[in-house]
Amino acid sequence: MDQIDDQKVPEPGTTTPYRRSWRRIRIYLRELSVIIVGILITVMITGIVSNFSRQRELRGMLSRVTEELRQNVDAVNHAREYYAREQRGFDILKSSMDNILTVPTDTLEKYRFIIGSIHSLETKNDAYEVLKNSILTQYIRKKGLMTELSAAYGRLDILGKQLDEYSSQKRGFFYPMLQNLEPEEVDRWMNGSAHDMFIYPAADRGFRTFVIVGPTVIDPDYFDLTAKTLLSTISRMEGYGYK
With bands split at pLDDT 50, 70 and 90, how would you rate the model's confidence at 56? Predict the structure, then answer.
């Protein structure tokens, strides 16, 4: 007879080393899957929270830009009224250069301070600069918004430069006029009547030239165009909830 192998055969209900190893592997895999799922959930929640924080910060930045634009509209309107008032006074001066004394005193009194006034556009762009240089701009969901903001602030810049050039030319004619006056004439110009305020500019050849050619530096319609551009941008920003 063949010799019977005396290796023990596992009795029913017992666990072999192989089975115990596989059982440990399954437990390990189950625990690993729980850990992986937990990590994925944490990452997903962190991403949601980060995105919410970015959008909240971005919304605040854009709201500040909207408020800045409103202030700039006020600045444009103020500059327009100030400039228009000066041009009304200069229209009187142009039509009466050789007979300024015939213009009623109360009429000249309304414009007595336009001769030495200097114009500028007191705008703000701090909020826009912060936004423009922020990495958060890549998370703006509204297409074309940054382009529209760039156009709005660009118009402000152009109008500001036109007013600066106008004032620069005005100073170039105004100061030489004062230098040509005697001290008592300067005192009379500064402290005299409304007619005294206009007599010397009307008689000065250089300033007479500026009264005629100075306004060509600025397109009066550009005030309205700039204001309308800003208001349109503000309306769009408010429509997006950036109030």
Answer: confident
Mean pLDDT of 168-186: 92
Q: Model pTM? A: 0.75
The 3-state secondary structure of the chain reads CCCCCCCCCCCCCCCCHHHHHHHHHHHHHHHHHHHHHHHHHHHHHHHHHHHHHHHHHHHHHHHHHHHHHHHHHHHHHHHHHHHHHHHHHHHHHHHCCCCHHHCCHHHHHCCCCCCCCCCCCCCCCHHHHHHHCCHHHHHCCCCCHHHHHHHHHHHHHHHHHHHHHHHHHHHHHHHHHHHCCCHHHHHHHHHCCHHHHHHHHHHCHHHHHHHHHHHHHCCCHHHHHHHHHHHHHHHHHHHCCCC
Residues 115 and 170: their CA atoms lie apart, in Å, by 9
Exposed, middle or buried by CB within 10 Å (0-12, 13-18, 19+), for 22? exposed
**pLDDT confidence of residue 144:** 87
pLDDT at 21 over 60: yes
Measured CA angle at 205 (ends 201, 211), to 5 deg: 60
Alpha carbons 228 and 148: distance in angstroms, whole number: 13
In angstroms, the Cα distances linking 209 to 202, 214, 215 are: 10, 8, 11
Q: How far apart are CA 108 and CA 92, in angstroms?
A: 8
Q: Are 241 and 58 in contact (CB under 8 A)?
A: no
Amino acid occupying residue 139: Y
Average predicted confidence (pLDDT) for the chain: 84
